[in-house]
């Protein structure tokens, strides 16, 4: 929802230049924005990147990562340019300026689907890492806590997730400003680097010892089905780069268009490098046996104590990373639901009762669905083909084409139209391929 006067600023944000901001509040920094943007980008998507290398081959996967990263940079630039040209302080407000209520509702629905879906995935992964998956096919999959202490009621999946939700997630999601999460975001980025670093070291060690797996530089297309399967990798990478729902929350607090643009550039380069490293070295380490969830490959027992310790560190570093990413996505989910349900209410930060109640309800809902849903990987793929691709490419491209402020060049409109066409075509093929795969597996 776009504000109608200068007094209505982004939710959870005091006015820039106010005494509160200048004296008692820490000013947002570019480095803090880089950490928050990078943390928003690197989430559950990183675990599926190596599987895209198996599907695409190394060279096409690298090209696709770079291409999507560049297109994401362009789409965010569209968003920032039209945001500062108008009066919007949210993604929904930006779409409302161009397409009215229908546009804002479309964004809110896509954000809610993407963020809530990711939060559920995060809790499921955290539960699997700590306590395993009791419904594992063929064998019981034990988590780190059960491997260390044996199977007890207190380290069961339900209890372990509940403890994390109450004692880790709840304190973090109660922060009312994105900038307050910059330190936790910095730690999350560090954990992602540790995760990638250990995987890379293990892959290099395996290569030196002659134990690395064979990899493909190009995809092997034996039939038409294999060709269509290539398109299933695209939504995974698109989802891995989608952070557009946090652009306004981070950018408006930063308050400087050029600074936010720089933060986005730096973050995209960092994340693209991380994705390529984890994709390449994960593929080298496990080859064609790599799973859609990379952590599953690290669950196998190692032949040495050092190997077992490294496996545990890899799984735990990733689980802790997701714990710290969770609040950023919850931030956008909460603000969009509040804007959708209570468009005429006061700012969420100024209504403590509504803020706390909405926070608790969303946290409880994510927990209950994470416990109830055993496997949502197909949902993760469909999310990348629908809500994520809409937020990342279709909506920003449509804003540039609509151009209500008269600031789009002909080049901008061509790029916007191209993004929309490519997004629709690839998503349609990916959805069809996924439906076909589900039909064959059932």
Automatic annotation (TrEMBL):
Cite the entry's keywords alphabetically. Answer: Amino-acid transport, Membrane, Transmembrane, Transmembrane helix, Transport
Q: Which GO terms describe its molecular function?
A: L-amino acid transmembrane transporter activity
Subcellular location per the Swiss-Prot or TrEMBL entry: Membrane
Protein name per the record: Amino acid transporter transmembrane domain-containing protein
What would be one Gene Ontology cellular-component term for the protein? organelle membrane
Sequence ranges of Polar residues compositional bias: 17-28
Predominantly, its location class is: membrane
Q: Which domain of life is it from?
A: Eukaryota
Q: Where is this region: Disordered?
A: 1-28
Query: Amino acid transporter transmembrane domain spans which residues?
Result: 29-417
Q: Can you tell me where the transmembrane regions are?
A: 33-53, 59-84, 105-125, 159-175, 187-207, 227-247, 259-286, 316-333, 354-373, 379-402, 414-436
How does the protein's chain sit in the membrane according to the entry?
A: Multi-pass membrane protein
What does the organism's lineage look like at the top? Eukaryota, Viridiplantae, Streptophyta, Embryophyta, Tracheophyta
């Amino acid at each position: 929802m776009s504000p109608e006067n200068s007094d209505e600023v982004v939710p959870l944000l005091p006015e820039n230049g106010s005494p509160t901001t200048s004296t008692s509040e820490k000013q947002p920094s570019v480095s803090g924005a880089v950490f928050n943007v990078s943390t928003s980008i690197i989430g559950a998507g990183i675990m599926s990147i190596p599987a895209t290398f198996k599907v695409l081959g190394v060279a096409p996967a690298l090209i696709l990562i770079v291409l999507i990263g560049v297109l994401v940079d362009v789409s965010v630039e569209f968003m920032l340019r039209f945001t500062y040209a108008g009066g919007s302080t949210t993604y929904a407000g930006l779409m409302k300026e161009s397409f009215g209520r229908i546009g804002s509702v479309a964004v809110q629905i896509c954000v809610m689907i993407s963020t809530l879906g990711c939060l559920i995935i995060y809790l499921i992964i955290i539960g699997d890492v700590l306590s395993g998956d009791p419904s594992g096919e063929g064998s019981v999959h034990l988590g780190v806590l059960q491997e260390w202490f044996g199977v007890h009621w207190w380290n069961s999946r339900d209890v372990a997730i509940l403890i994390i939700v109450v004692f880790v997630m709840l304190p973090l999601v109660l922060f009312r400003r994105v900038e307050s999460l910059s330190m936790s975001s910095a730690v999350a980025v560090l954990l992602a680097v540790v995760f990638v670093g250990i995987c890379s070291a293990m892959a290099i060690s395996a290569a030196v010892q002659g134990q690395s797996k064979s990899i493909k530089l190009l995809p092997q297309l034996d039939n038409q089905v294999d060709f269509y399967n290539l398109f299933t990798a695209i939504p995974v990478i698109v989802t891995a780069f989608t952070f557009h729902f946090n652009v306004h929350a981070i950018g408006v607090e930063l308050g400087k268009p050029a600074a936010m643009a720089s933060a986005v550039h730096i973050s995209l380069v960092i994340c693209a490098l991380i994705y390529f490293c984890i994709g390449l070295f994960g593929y080298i380490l496990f080859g064609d046996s790599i799973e859609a969830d990379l952590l599953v490959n690290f669950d196998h027992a190692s032949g040495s104590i050092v190997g077992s310790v490294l496996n545990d560190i890899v799984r735990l570093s990733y689980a802790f990373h997701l714990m710290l990413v969770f609040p950023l996505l919850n931030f956008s989910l909460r603000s969009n639901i509040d804007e959708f349900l209570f468009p005429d209410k006061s700012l969420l930060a100024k209504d403590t009762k509504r803020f706390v109640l909405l926070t608790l309800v969303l946290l409880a809902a994510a927990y209950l669905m994470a416990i109830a849903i055993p496997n949502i990987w197909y949902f993760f793929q469909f999310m990348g083909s629908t809500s994520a691709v809409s937020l990342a490419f279709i909506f920003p491209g449509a804003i540039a084409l609509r151009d209500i402020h008269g600031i789009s060049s002909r080049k901008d409109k061509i790029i916007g139209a191209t993004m929309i066409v490519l997004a629709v075509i690839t998503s349609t093929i990916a959805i069809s391929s996924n439906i076909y795969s589900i039909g064959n597996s059932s």
